[in-house]
Amino acid sequence: MFALPLALLAFAATGLADPTPPALTYLYSVNLTFAAPVEIGSVPTGNRAILTIAGGAFSGPKLNGKVGSGLDWGLTDAKGVFSPDALYTLHTNDNATILVSEKGHAPHVQILFETASTKYAYLNTIVGYATGGPNAAGDIALDVWQIGA
């Protein structure tokens, strides 16, 4: 008669413990350069612009190279928060190509990767977290981390 309520109480109590935050492993830092934006203007959800990613460079313990082309069709809301929605490529110094997908609410960005490279295949199964923003040159500088081990 008391077994189910006690089991539920025991289950609920385990949720009260402080959760362990995920580990972060540094992947790379990237500098994204842009061509002139195409302003779409005020849309129902904010201000939309198409930002052409024209290049840049990235460097980290296991990943180094140049940024290829891409687009960010981000949205700036009424509070001035920019939400990136970008796709671009990374070209490593050893000739691998990695597709990067970014979404989030700046300065916090979720990153997913796709690559056919066997050397970098681990990127296909991880979630990245990036933080950063505009630098003095007007480019976007991000530090990218792997979430979890």
UniProtKB/TrEMBL annotation:
InterPro entries documented for this protein: UPF0311
Gene3D superfamilies: 2.40.160.20
Pfam families: DUF3237
Signal peptide span: 1-17
Record carries keyword Signal: yes
Annotated keywords: Signal
Name of the featured protein: Uncharacterized protein
Species in which this protein is naturally found: Podospora didyma
The organism's taxonomic lineage, starting at the top: Eukaryota, Fungi, Dikarya, Ascomycota, Pezizomycotina
